[in-house]
Amino acid sequence: MKKAAMKHLRESLLHSTFEFGITVKAVDGLLEIIGGALLWFKSSSINELVQTAAQHELSRGEHAFIFTHLSNASQKLASGSTMFASIYLATHGLVKLILVICLWLNRLWAYPMTMAVFGGFMAYQILRYTHTHSIALLLLTFFDAILIFLTWKEFQRQKLLRAEKEKH
User: Which of 104, 102, 97 is closest to 18 using CA atoms?
Assistant: First the structure.
């Protein structure tokens, strides 16, 4: 009986961790959608504000180095790269959110789809890491790897539960 109780406890812990992980991904996806929308609609306003402040400071000759770089950065942000960044953020967040909702609704097809999509995200994050050497990307990739493992375990659990339900 002890062995069965330990197995149940382990499965319950894995299930709870899976649910927590996908909830974190849902919140992250929602924040990415909001960030993408804000970037889309506010980038020109941010650029105008920075340009106005930079012109005032540049005309006074003070802090010219800092404001020259700030001005250049805001112009790049308001350029086409902003459109890409906002679309990337919004679609990345939307994909995560849709997958998590489908997992919450217990759609069986969503489990392998989620593992494939998050695997793709991991590949892209590793590629980005080779350019940025960002520890945050490594941590995110590690979190995604754990979530893929938990999704696989939950997928196995759901298939077993469905098979048992069909027997009865």
Answer: 104
User: What confidence tens digit (pLDDT) does each residue in 35-89 have?
Assistant: 989 888 876 555 565 556 556 555 555 555 555 555 555 555 555 577 778 888 8
- The predicted model scores a pTM of 0.72
Cα gap 75→168, rounded to integer Å: 65
**Is 86 within 8 Å of 40 (Cβ atoms)?**
yes
Residue given tokens 């459109």 in the structure block: 83
DSSP-H helix ranges across the chain: 2-60, 64-78, 80-104, 110-132, 135-167
User: Which value, to the nearest 10 degrees, does the dihedral of the CA atoms of residues 71, 52, 48, 74 take?
Assistant: 10
3-state secondary structure of 125: helix
- pLDDT of the residue at 1: 63
